[in-house]
Design brief:
150 residues; 2 domains; Ubiquitin-like (UB roll); globular; five-stranded mixed beta sheet; 36% helix
Length: 150
């Protein structure tokens, strides 16, 4: 049994230590907002926060995060600035990638609270959105930055 701290709760899972965190979250804990796409940490769809840092959950063994605090989109309060901005800017089209991009945005804004448009572009350059909502995503990131500063 492996003990994890997920979305503010202690959870025990029966999984091999080398199982990717993605599969433990989805298969053992039923947290399906964390999606599988590439399996090689390239697309960002499986991103979660571990100790407030964006991490690709498809490529990190569950044994490596036993002491970390894992946050998925479900672990954020409804009034989180990123959630508010995503709704305000009506970002999702299909929604498949959104939770990963939102969590990466939280990490990015924690390091760059007043980003330029170029910095937003660079921060989101390594996440994929196949349905083309990047223009709305970029606007939402800027709005989330404004809301976070208030």
């Amino acid at each position: 049994m492996i003990s994890l701290h997920v979305n503010g709760k202690k959870r025990k899972v029966d999984a091999a230590p080398d199982t990717p965190l993605l599969w433990v979250l989805r298969d053992n804990l039923g947290i399906t907002s964390v999606k599988y796409t590439c399996g090689i940490a390239e697309c960002g769809v499986c991103t979660v926060l571990i100790d407030d840092e964006a991490v690709r959950s498809c490529s990190i063994p569950v044994a490596d995060v036993r002491k970390g605090k894992i946050i998925t989109i479900e672990g954020l309060p409804e009034n989180h600035p990123v959630k508010i901005a995503w709704i305000e800017k009506q970002v999702p089209q299909c929604g498949y990638c959104q939770s990963g991009i939102m969590l990466q945005t939280i990490d990015f804004l924690s390091r760059r609270p007043n980003p330029s448009a170029k910095q937003v572009d660079e921060a989101l350059d390594n996440v994929l959105c196949r349905c083309g909502s990047h223009p709305r995503i970029k606007k939402a990131v800027q709005l989330a930055a404004e809301l976070s500063r208030k």
